[in-house]
Design brief:
13 helices; ten-stranded mixed sheet; 10 strands; about 375 residues; about 45% helix; alpha+beta; single chain
Length: about 375
């Protein structure tokens, strides 16, 4: 199923045409983009341990040197890498919907989007003295946007400055939003300017309150029910922006029965959820963010998103974006399973590690046993 999905959306001819339309400064003088993608997706799926190993294994097909492969990788724009993730999401979303494998909406009538940041660590290709230094340079950071209903990453915003704060990229994320979108994000995106900007655009947020956010209390705190892990209280607050915009928000206080790993027993959430949505349901939306964000990080790890030898920012971010494409491929497979076996069974009993391991151990032998022309049907 994974190979069929790859051929359907990311076949060589279609991918090269897409690259010609998308790339602002094409860097495929020595090597087609589809050939670079083919090498890299073997690394991302852990079929090959490194770019060097993949290049050597496919030297006959590639027909060029490792230096040419590296030069091409280092020249792929972050714009192109991000567009590849968006392209895969646009192509796979109709398949998920057609199969009836989308998840039940967390909030009826709203399009929920979860924002998650990611930093790529220091690479091997640095001077020896800097590899373990505290202030070592990172090759990149990014913000990813996933939609729980599809189980896919629909957008990504990479930045070649590895130490850039995540909130500096959030303006670009908001520019892609639409009125009625429900953004769920961490406390890094809680400054009052961002909260007011979300409100101005007609969107909504469910975000963990950052300590020190200036709020004016409108109504007193009152108990509003229980969740599986604790109980919820809520109140109305007003966030005052420097320019005078004053959105009215609900502040939910979650108190847990058991402390978290860092010893916390309480957190506050700021949200625009309408009055008809009960406070426990609003708290549950944020809790699902943790579940999905953790699953995404595990998926990235299983699919080798952080390819250590890629020291140049463009190459490292391209490898990371390919891992997000791989997670979107898997989202199609999981959607098919949800359609047959039900959402609850898939969520509780399917281990992502086992799926990734099956792909890794089966893929190479399958491609030997089944010749390339057999996949043309897709």
């Amino acid at each position: 199923m994974v190979r069929a999905a790859l051929e359907r959306v990311l076949g060589a001819d279609r991918l090269d045409l897409w690259y010609e339309r998308t790339a602002q400064k094409p860097s495929t003088r020595d090597l087609l983009f589809s050939s670079v993608y083919d090498l890299m997706h073997h690394v991302v799926f852990c079929v090959q341990p490194s770019v060097r190993a993949a290049s050597q294994a496919h030297h006959t097909d590639v027909g060029t040197s490792l230096v040419s492969v590296s030069n091409t990788l280092n020249g792929i724009e972050t714009h192109t890498a991000a567009e590849l993730v968006r392209y895969s999401a646009r192509a796979f979303a109709p398949l998920i919907q057609h199969m009836g494998g989308a998840r039940a909406p967390g909030l009826e009538g709203y399009r929920i989007k979860i924002v998650e940041g990611n930093c790529l660590a220091a690479r091997e290709h640095r001077m020896q003295a800097l590899r373990e230094a505290t202030g070592r340079a990172w090759p990149g950071t990014s913000l990813g946007v996933s939609e729980p209903a599809l189980g896919a990453v629909t957008d990504v915003f990479p930045c070649e400055k590895g130490h850039a704060p995540e909130r500096s990229l959030f303006g670009a994320v908001l520019d892609t939003g639409e009125a009625g979108d429900r953004w769920i994000e961490d406390r890094n995106f809680c400054p009052r300017a961002l909260l007011c900007e979300i409100d101005k655009r007609g969107a909504f947020c469910v975000t963990r309150a950052q300590q020190g956010v200036p709020c004016e209390i409108v109504t007193p705190l009152r108990s509003s029910g229980r969740t599986p892990t604790g109980h919820v209280a809520q109140q109305r607050v007003c966030v005052v922006e420097a320019h005078g915009h004053t959105p009215l928000l609900r502040r939910l206080r979650l108190t847990w029965h058991e402390a978290t790993r860092d010893g916390a027993t309480r957190l506050h959430i700021l949200t625009h959820v309408p009055r008809q949505v009960a406070a426990p349901q609003g708290a549950e939306l944020y809790r699902k963010r943790w579940t999905l964000a953790t699953a995404l990080k595990h998926l990235e790890a299983y699919f080798h998103s952080d390819i250590n030898p890629l020291g140049y920012p463009k190459a490292a971010l391209f490898g990371f974006c390919l891992a997000l494409v791989a997670s979107n491929v898997l989202a199609v497979v999981l959607a098919a399973w949800r359609r047959v076996h039900g959402e609850e069974m898939v969520d509780e009993e399917v281990a992502l590690y086992s799926i990734a391991n099956d792909i890794t151990t089966t893929y190479h032998g399958m491609m030997i046993a089944i010749p390339e022309p057999a996949w043309d049907v897709f």
